Amino acid sequence: MTTSMNMNTPTPWVQICALNDIPPLGSRVLERPAGNVAIFRTATDSVFALLDHCPHKGGPLSQGIVHGESVTCPLHAWNIDLASGQARAPDEGCARRFAAKVENGQVFVSLS
Questions:
Q1: What beta strand segments (E) does 1-112 contain?
Q2: In what residue span(s) does the Rieske domain sit (predicted)?
Q3: Fewer C-beta within 10 Å: the chain N or C terminus?
Q4: Which residues fall within 8 angstroms of residue 33, CB to CB, at 6 or more apart?
Q5: The predicted structure's pLDDT at residue 8
Q6: What predicted TM-score, i.e. pTM, was given to this entire model?
């Protein structure tokens, strides 16, 4: 999956790891002072990146269960859409999303 927030501005990509370093239906955490980023891999090898902070009570999304293109927060079972960061109804809220892509078997994320 390749996404860009603004097609007119170049996206500064950061190489994170090899795709195979993230288990299918799993995640990897990128620790950073501005807040950890959870990088998810689906069963179809799509990658998504969200702030590792559930919009409900701040639970670590990286420890949740990945299913389809969603993750279920381990604290209170909120379902978060991986592509948008939006909580699925009836819950409301949004986790910050980061652009992510896979090239030549390597995972890249834009942290801007």
A1: 13-18, 26-30, 37-41, 47-51, 65-67, 70-72, 79-81, 97-98, 100-103, 106-110
A2: 14-109
A3: C
A4: none
A5: 57
A6: 0.88
Backbone angles phi, psi at 23, to 5 degrees: -65, 150
Residue spans per domain, the chain: 16-101
Q: Spell out the long-range contacts of 63-69 with Cβ–Cβ below 8 A and sequence spacing 24 or more.
A: 63/27, 64/27, 65/25, 66/25, 66/26, 66/27, 66/40, 66/41, 66/42, 67/25, 68/42, 69/42
Domain 16-101, classified CATH 2.102.10.10, yes or no: yes
Which tokens is 56 given? 């409900």
How far is the C-alpha of 64 from the C-alpha of 19, rounded, in Å? 19
- Sheet order of strands, 97-98 included: 26-30, 37-41, 47-51, 97-98
Question: d(Cα 78, Cα 85) in Å, to the nearest integer?
Answer: 12
